[in-house]
Amino acid sequence: MLLAIGRRAIPSLKGRGTANFLGTDLRLGTLSRMPIPLRSNVLRMTPYTPGKPIDEVKRELGLSEVVKLASNENPLGPSPLAIQAVQEAAPQMHLYPDASGYSVKEKIATKFGVERNNVLLGNGSDELIHLLGLVLLEPGTNMVVGNPTFVRYDAAAHLADIELRKVPLTETWHHDLDAMAAACDSQTRLVFVANPHNPTGTVREKADFEAFLAKLPSTAVCVIDEAYVEYASDLDLPDSVGYVREGRPVVALRTFSKAYGLAGIRVGYGIAPAEIVDAIDRAREPFDVNSLAQIAAIAALDDEKHLAESRKVNAEGMARIAALATELGLTTVPSRANFICIHVKRPGQEVFDALLKRGVIVRSGGPLGMTDYVRVSIGTPDEVSAFLTAFREVMA
Prior knowledge:
By secondary structure, this protein is an alpha/beta fold.
């Protein structure tokens, strides 16, 4: 007698018989899998922990109203121009996207004064971080990052199974650029600097970067991750795109997920040396940036009014939260992103849990490497008011 499994067949088991099927032991009629030989370096990775979804919190706690200030999203939503562009393009969703991203690359290249072959596109800048690791890291090399920092940098190193050198931030939660340069050697292939920094929001300005880049070995590519740069445009920031134009081994990473409000359709971009763009185009998945994302990105770049309003709402909300923290005798990390870290002087998880019960979702600092902090994304004026009320109660 045979038992059919899919299109294969194996002998049926009676009594104490044993058989193997595609690495599976069948004993006494019980299906038990043999150990799967997963790569040990993958198991060392820390999974990304997103902010809790609103619907999940409503279900768990029986709440009808929940405010989410956890994922650094734009509270104003996407540009109206982007929404209109997506609506008009929706009937064409049955067609594959432009795999080369010609139009959106052309738009970005024109905006920044570079060639189209200097423009990277990705399914969010997260994918570009992954691809940079894929094309630049190999056994025997190493990578240098700040600590704490964005967890996806770590993932690129772990997937490549190479040495990851973590350099502690300064006491003021800034990148220690001198120490990071000192941690590099002839085998360093990637150095990641988030500016503004994630998760703290701190910034290193242009003068600091000029000295830093001069100290890096010629083997190292410096990735300046500027996911939040639109919120700090009034500062004397490093000219990341200018470095690429000068032929330096620099990649400027940016995203449409934050100030442009397109987090839900995932589109990130970068400005990089042409040979890096070429290598990533060889390694990436075809059609990785969907049609609606490309259409929305082009429209969003034209909406200066929406960008200006996003900056204004962010600055006002940040000031209100910082003022309450000061009133309560707490300190904040000076942030130029769309979130603020508050030193709550006790485990951040306790404050996170207490706020959650009041229908306000923030981020506990623990998973971010900031144990006695909470991080709060800046919401609409009403959302900020809800946080301020709940936070005052919790801290009392």
